Structures are given as C-alpha cells and as structure tokens.
Prior knowledge:
Strand order of the largest sheet of chain B: 1-6-7-8
Shape of chain A: globular
Radius of gyration of chain B: 19 Å
Number of domains of chain A: 3
CATH architecture of the largest domain in chain A: 2-Layer Sandwich
Largest interface: A-B, 82 and 64 residues
Order of helices and strands of chain B: EEHHEHEHEHEEEHHH
Strand content of chain B: 15-25%
Oligomer: heterodimer
CATH architecture of the largest domain in chain B: Alpha-Beta Barrel
Number of strands of chain B: 8
Strand order of the largest sheet of chain A: 5-4-3-6-7
CATH class of the largest domain in chain B: Alpha Beta
Largest sheet of chain B: 4 strands, antiparallel
Structural class of chain B: alpha/beta
Amino acid sequence: MAKRTLYNHVWDRHTVETLPNGDTQLFIGLHMVHEVTSPQAFSQLSEHGETVAYPDRTVATVDHIVPTDSIQRPFQDPQAEAMLSALQHNTNAFGVQFFGLDSGQYGIVHIVGPELGFTQPGMTIVCGDSHTSTHGAFGSLAFGIGTTQIEHVLATQTLALPSLKVRQIQVTGTLAPGVSAKDVILKIIQTLGVHGGIGYAYEYAGSVIESMDMEGRMTICNMSIEGGARVGYVNPDETTFAYMKGRPYAPNDAQWAAALDYWTAIRTQPEAEFDDQVFIDGNQLEPMVTWGIHPGQSVGISERLPMPNGDADMLRAYDHMGLTPGDPIAGTPIDVAFIGSCTNARLPDLREAAAVLTNQRVHDSVRCLVVPGSSAIKQQAEAEGLDKIFKAAGADWRSPGCSMCLAMNPDQLVGNERCASSSNRNFIGRQGSATGRTFLMSPAMVATAAIHGCITDCRA
Amino acid sequence: MKIITVTGQAVVIPGDDIDTDRIVPARFLKEITFEKMGNYLFYDERFHADGSPKDFPLNAVDRLGATVLVVGANFGCGSSREHAPQAIMRYGFKAIVGVSFSDIFSGNCQAIGVPCIPVLQSDIDAIMNAVADASSTLTLDLGNQQIQAGDQTWSSQLSPARQQAFVTGEWNIKEILKANAAQTRTVAKRLPYIQNFTS
C-alpha cells in the first residue's frame, strides 16, 4: 500500500468515516456540475425535499450541448434547450453558482474550473464527467462520478469510495521539438494499456512532467481515465503556484502564505512508497497517432500499423477503421480536422496549431474546426490574432463547447468520415456517426493533417 | 434491499474494452430522465441506421428475458455516464459478470444496486460456454462468493467491501452518508481551503 504520497495525504485529510463495509466516506472539496449528468440528481433532491448541503462548494457551467456556431436561445435542438433550462432552474432553485452563456465565462467545465481558480492543490474534486481527472494537474484528487453519486455529493458533500493503489509514472529526459503532452499520455496508455489503471491513481512525475506547463499537465491528467485510472495527478510546484496567482477564485494575497503551506504539505514526500513505479523515456518519444477504436491502439508517426495477433478486438478495430495491417500511419487520408475538447483546447494548444497553420491553407478535401475551450480562451486567442490565422487558413473558428469530441451538439462526423482529432476518445460512434472514424493526436499533428489532407509528421 | 443471490438466463457480450459510448450512444443522453434508457441499450450495436435489427446477442429471440450480462475485460470504460448502468438495469439486467470493469462504471453500478462481479480471466471462457445454451441459468451467490451453472462453479473475485455492501443492502448508501453530517462538518473545519486559509 502506498505511503506518504499526495494521494495518501489528501485522502486522509478528507476522510470522514470508515463505512461498515470498509469503504471510506470522503469529504468533497469542490463539486463541478454540468447540464448532462445532473438533472436526474437534482430531481431526486426535489423529490425527497432535500437541499444542497454545501452550495458554496458547488459550481456549474454548460458545455456538452452548446452549439459552437450560434448560442442564440432557444437552441434549435429542443432537447438541448431543455437541458440548459433544467440546469438554469436547478442552480437557481438550489443556490448554486452558475456560469451560463450570458456570464462571459462559460466553457468546458474542466477548462473553466482551473482558469477561474476554483481548482486548487490538495482538494478532492468531483464532477459527473470522467475527464474530471484533468484537475489532478494541480495536485488535487479529482475524478468522475455518476448521477447517483452526484446526488450523494449534493445532499451530503461526501461519497463512499474504495481506496486506490498508487502507481508513479516517471517520464524522464526531455521531449524533442514537436513532441507534446498529448504524445506523452498516448504513449503511457499504449504502454500500460487501457485497463492498466483500474484500481490505481496515477502520479505523474519526472523531468518531462516537472518542466511542463500547467496546460500540458492538464492534457496528461485529462486522459488518465483512458488508461483506466480514475485519478491522475501531478505534485504542485512553482509552476502550479504561478498559474494560480491572481485567478479570481484562487486565494488572495492575504491568504497566499497559508495556501502555500497547505499546498506544500500535501506533496508526495521523498521517502514515499508506491504500489508500482513505471519509467518512460521522454527522449525516445515521437508524435503519436491512434489508429484503432480505443486510445491504447496507437503508433508513433514513423511506425507502421501492427500485424494482427489473433486478438478479436484488433480485428474489429481494423474492420471499423478500414485500414490495412503493416501500412504506415503517415499518409492516411482524413476528411475532418478537429482542434478542441477538454484535452487540447487551451491557449497553448491553439498557439501550437496556429503556428502550423500560419501562411498555410487547409486542404480542399478537409473541413477544419477550431473550438476554444472557454470564453476566456476565445478572447485571449482573438487578442493574439490566432483567429485570423485560422480563418486565413480556411479553418472554421468557433465559440466554446465540447463540440466534436462527442455527439451531443450539432458538430458531428457524417457517415464514415475520418477525423484527425485533438480530443480524447476514438470509440466507435464517439463523434456522432456510428461509422465515423477518429484518429487521436496532438493539436500540431491535427493542424498538419488539415494542411496535407492526410496524417503527416508535424516535424517534417 | 439486500442482494444475496441473482439467478437467471445470461447473455454474453463478447470482447474487451466495451465503452460506455457503445453501451449508450451520447445522442441519447439529452433526455433529462433515465426513464427510457433501457430502450437505448447498445442501440447502434443492435440496430442498423434504418432501424432494422443487427445480429447482436441482445437481439436473440431466445434471450429476451435474460437478467445477467457476461462480459470480457474493462467493461464500461470511458465516460462516467450513469446512463450506461441505468440502461442495463432498466433493460432488465440485475447483475454483470466479467473479467474486469472500469472503476467509475462499477461504482455507478454499485450505487444503483447492480453487482459487477469480476471473475478470473482463466474462468471466463468456461462461464461463457456454460451459458451457450439458452435454457441454462447462471446463479451468482454473493454470500458465498460463487458463480454456478449446472454442476460447475467458479469463484467470484468481488472485493470484500463490495460483497458486504450488496449482501447487507448498504450499497444504498445515501442515508448512511447523511447520518454522518456532524463528522462531515468536523472534517470541513479542519481543511485550510474550506476555512479560506484564515486560521
């Protein structure tokens, strides 16, 4: 069992009780809410005449169903309109702070939480969304929950949970130019498998992680769940503290010293013990691309597609993707390029894509969608002129939302289109068409594929 | 409600890493209640785009009353949508047996009283074979941590905590959590960030 890790420190400080069956009742420091997974939970509270126990530890925004071309109400999709209306009603009725479309601060919940300073080191953070692991980048224990558990948190600010084991993943060395956080996490998932993380929290460490900006750390923690780990985190350090400083809901100057004391105290100690340790050589990494139907089925851009090994799931992946074993991944044609999602829609991601698209044109055969992760990112990108670069290249510059990561708004694949995507899941049907095909990669790789009309090494 | 044994016909969903987008496609998540989720279970696996049925285990006419799902490894990976367990439960399934389950998925299932029972990788083929005949039944004995079909038995790998939650009925945990409100306040008072870093 792990000892003296950040996981242990934060878990212990938030333990309310050991429940009769041995599970832990854990206090939840921050509960983020969005429109898709919360309405049934609020309905249950209403039905039982209950209130939200800690409304000031609860914050909501809207992201999954928001159209990215026009946010005029009512939405054209009556179901989407009903979802947003329900969230407006529920947050109002239960006294929960809501960053709605008219707040000027809405966006993808995992982007808005950190940029407003709600997300802080040493917290327990939950949200009815599996990519809640994103917030672990700040040294919090953050994880996705289902709707019944949302109801538990709303009613009690606690959850019943089994404890986790801790696997430290050290990414050593230095990343080569053109290799990014997305490539690191795709390599980790390829190495440990999509179910390697079941029962574990992943602690990311090593020189590559330590020298990475917060946005890169968020990309890595975001996809922990794709490797089966419900929780992924990075120990807070000067990079974390510098990011936090001055954020609207972060500690102010008077609180700062006490905050630093706490944030430092919960770090993994030098004499910590882990249940497992894994080392990945960052020097050896190249841009990664998924070719199959889960995020573990990936190759480096210079590699060829794997030969079938008798695994039925691999055959199913080839059948769905329409690819040939042994072919190089480079040169695979694409129809759609999507830059966005809670994985890769932050300002550095957009800068990376814009750098590639500067003075270039999106290929005639490709439609390219660039979707900032939040209202603030959209404004900052426009202040830097990134929108002009995207538009000049022939890409579509949109408003914030989950967009084409999943099929809950008008941005969807059609038929068996192939999509180079900076999102997190290449599951069958994920991007809105049962026959659509998704290739996950970094924003720079998506932008490069958009220009060439096929998967291409962004370093070439 | 105590869940001590589940007995019934089983349906095998072959393959590993079956994600929640396959279990319930995202377009069906736009309903603000779970009422109709059973209709959407494995929708794109069960039906062609024109609505005609595909050759998929759930569509087998001799399995329509099945109450146990038998699955491979990492079942329920992906999204935290409780729509997936709700669809399984509302379709009529009472328990799932498989090699392994996503942590979020099995936690969601526990919260609504659907046991996800892990078995050894080396046993899964035999379990799947044992229910190949539609007339066979599978018995999940949570009290004795056993799975049985005919004269064959296998051991359940359900964790002791999960086992106890189901057999005592404590999976339905909300009232127990609520009863600890005073202890919850005590923990909150000790957390520097809850106290605005003022003490």
